[in-house]
Amino acid sequence: MKTRTVYQIDSFTKEKFKGNPAGVVINADGLSPDEMQLIARELNNSETAFLFHPTEEGYDAEVRYFTPTTEVPICGHATIAAVYAKALESKMDSCVFRIKTKIGILPIEIIQQDGDYQIIMTQGKFDLSPAFDTETSQILLKALGLERTDLDERCPIQIASTGHSKVMIGIRSRKKLNKLSPNQMELALLSERISCNGYFVFTLDSGEEETLTYGRMFAPAIGITEDPVTGNANGPLGGYLVQNRVVSFEDNYVEFNAKQGEKINRLGTINVSVTSENNIPKEIKIKGNAVVIFKTELSL
Q1: Where are the domains of the chain?
Q2: How many other C-beta atoms lie within 10 A of the C-beta of residue 41?
Q3: Tell me, which fold does domain 3-122+289-299 have in CATH?
């Protein structure tokens, strides 16, 4: 029997019980995939991150991510949580911490200030699929409870990804965003057809000078009815907005704040930055705060 150190951390906030909760197992060496899946199910967060020591040069830790029902290749808020927990546990100074994930090795910046940390995640390669056809769009809108008149005409319905894809659906109204009550079964069935599990509905109707977008994310096919604040949705959103020229930018760079979680009282803020080349996103980063909810030991 071995003791594992387990954190529960809220990402993209400094206020406890806001933002997006993630489990983190600091010393996961020796755990089997079945054991990790059971731990993730027990903690019952949208994702739990497991940190392993490196087995070769070129990175500082390997991280694997599990929802309550399945392993996923990458997760934004759980990465913020995992590196934040590691920084606290090891009393780290500001540095670049390289993590090996299913989508490759990612550099994560740790910013130490007054005994606390901010984490900046460089995401994976940005990819944007063609816009949905009329039939698929109509199935999606029906499942979300939206009409075509609700859509922001600047925003085609497309799948965007920095390693874990999301469908981008831009709508006109923040009020409408918070009224959504999707048909989760229909969304899960559509995921099989389009090979994408996440649906990110967003609006530029923020009503706040310091905030560009508000969003909500649904992924019932992988056991997530609604995710509070999603790094792997808001990061790709930045690339999507740039490539579709929805936002203006200077010197091939744009930075903005995105909020999510308002409807479910878990509001959090993600800072998104996009560096582009010839209007094509080349590097996407998300920056966030985090706060510890609890730390405990698990004997297994």
Answers
A1: 3-122+289-299, 127-287
A2: 14
A3: Diaminopimelate Epimerase; Chain A, domain 1 (3.10.310)
Q: Is 65 helix (H, G, I), strand (E, B) or coil?
A: strand
Q: What are phi and psi of 205, to 5 degrees?
A: -85, 65
pLDDT in 10s for each residue of the chain, 300 residues: 899 999 999 999 999 999 999 999 999 999 999 999 999 999 999 999 999 999 999 999 999 999 999 999 999 999 999 999 999 999 999 999 999 999 999 999 999 999 899 999 999 999 999 999 999 999 999 999 999 999 999 999 999 999 999 999 999 999 999 999 999 999 999 999 999 999 999 999 999 999 999 999 999 999 899 999 999 999 999 999 999 999 988 899 999 999 999 999 999 999 999 999 988 999 999 999 999 999 999 998
Q: Is 76 left (phi over 0), alpha (psi -120 to 50) or beta?
A: alpha
What token pair was written down for 50? 């497991």
pTM: 0.94
Give dist(CA 139, CA 190) in Å, integer.
Answer: 8
User: Tokens representing 240?
Assistant: 């999507």
d(CA 46, CA 23): 9
Would you say how long the chain is, in residues?
300
- CATH assignment of 127-287, given 2.40.50.140, 3.30.365.10, 3.30.565.10, 3.10.310.10? 3.10.310.10
- 297 classed as catalytic: no
Pick from 60, 67, 64, 59: nearest CA to 87: 60
Cα separation of 89 and 273, whole Å?
A: 28
Q: Do domains 3-122+289-299 and 127-287 have the same CATH topology?
A: yes
Radius of gyration over alpha carbons of the chain, in Å?
Answer: 18
Q: How far apart are CA 121 and CA 142, in angstroms?
A: 34
Answer yes or no: are the C-beta atoms of 61 and 79 closer than 8 Å: no
Task: List the catalytic residue out of 42, 47, 89, 297.
Answer: 47
